[in-house]
């Protein structure tokens, strides 16, 4: 038996769960800063190996313990180490720190499997009903020659969204590859999908990938990565639609001629299939970002969240800072844990963090109750119901008596066959996935389902390709239907099929699931930064997965509706690519600034954007507001920031060194002083003055800008000095000060919001301010 363990260790390396054999070993990241560029990849590997040899008992053991050697920009390696070995390595010359890479991330579709018991849904959405000036597309040549890399679940290369007709050769600077694996080889890349790699070594330290459940290659089994890729940069494809022809028309990514590269980092949770969860390991994501930097991507889109750890151990934060240093713009999803405060993820100031909101597309499907009351629901499920009234029951009333489950949630296995058969069942969101509720009603023999929102999701209606006729309604309407069921003698309902309409109600509104501020890591940076469409987005899908993602669902679609900040993030990545195509020399901070300061806080009827529960939304919901692509390429002024500015900001947060060549000054600037397009001041006592610098990027060179205080935060007052800025040329920088004072007593820790802007009569450069008081 001992012999056998030894045999496994030495020859099958990472394919077997080494942790089971040596239970005190785990994957550590040994972080060494950055490569200076004077070593070959072989020399780097040898160097990393020599560190390992110094703590391992043999050459052989050192070689078998390495998981990744990071070779492009990030200097360091991931290896299976004991705590003692890690501690010794952290003292070695050249090592900045070692930390366990126990943090795992997951894809940001609505809800997520990672928080058991919290609402989630694989489901849903809509595509590119984006109304936008075509000028930016034209000027940007549709993003031609900009390279967008996505970290995700892989890609379905045969989708029409990724065809390369008419696209010129791959840009010469591209160094990426098309990595072979299960059902994927170099023939699957083309002049559109120019790269595909996969990262599974970190994942496989916890057990080999079960290849019945995913492709061990860049190919996408889940659908998520195909969806995000086609949203950011899919080609214009005509005559697409989801099931039943909903949203029929053409689908196009935000920047339809960009080149795409997939870095597959997310896999099924060990022991289950993708329908029960995905997981993305930190060590794998670090390798993917390092390769993306080396390959030459211009934009990284990451619809991945989780992995709550301090900065010093946050591989995603560290890796994306390396990317930012090379002017790669990184867009990330804010997370789907809203509307609870302080849930926003991907909080670093060098990341563009994206919330989710609605579009103007709608799929109204009337619900008619037996008492003649009519309710507007939404549905994209092809309806096989007859055009007559069906008996209507509440899920809580037709549960199996022996199953202990939250009433009305219609969780798997909870409904009684006898009581449910041929009826329409009212279920509520809250626990479990939306599509599994539909599957449960179907299992129990129900004819259809009305799925009502939980109170927290308000009037945000998410549609799914349910496995039976199903209509989604708001929480208020759900409550009303429940009252009707409980008071009527023989409650009945008629569900009509949905149809697609545009411009049906004020849009956008914020998604209830969109994670919100204040920023739990850096309270003096407002997050999210921006919002973009993330409810009911139609985009390309994997042919290996059903539109519900459920294993039992055997339907296959080319395009599918999905909802989540996962879907809004690639919208921003696409817009970033367009701005980058027009302004190839702009820094990532300048591009972020352009997108933020031109955003709007108004909806389609000129009123303030609301939350899903009908309140006025604020910068902790949407940052600077809803993106306006037509304005984003001509912001007038930008708030620029350099790599050094970010390092200085980290000094203030006392949060672990990233760059061995950088020493923090004795008195570092405060985080509020980071030249950010928004301003947050937490725990104000008395007054504070922060500085900002704006750079003129307007076409004419000469420009005069005037300061406007658009709104004072309640209980506080702020001033801007000077109030006039005169620029003499493009690139001219001017500094101004913002002084914020407490005006009267407010509740400690409670934030108030204000707005200020600079305008030259043509451009409006707008920023939100968030301030809270300590006393
Ligand atoms: C792999 O997954 C399949 C399908 O989910 C399952 O039937 C099988 O038992 C799994 N194999 C292993 C080795 O876990
Ligand atoms: C606020 O400032 C006053 C005056 O400087 C000081 O006495 C007080 O301790 C401060 N309060 C807090 C909570 O920092």
From TrEMBL:
Single GO molecular function: serine-type endopeptidase activity
Domain Inhibitor I9: 27-102
CDD domains, sorted: PA_subtilisin_like (cd02120), Peptidases_S8_3 (cd04852)
Disordered: annotated segments: 210-236
Active site: 152, 224, 566
Domain of life: Eukaryota
Residues annotated as domain Peptidase S8/S53: 143-625
Keywords: Hydrolase, Protease, Serine protease, Signal
PANTHER family: PROPROTEIN CONVERTASE SUBTILISIN/KEXIN (PTHR10795)
Protein name, as recorded: Subtilisin-like protease SBT5.6
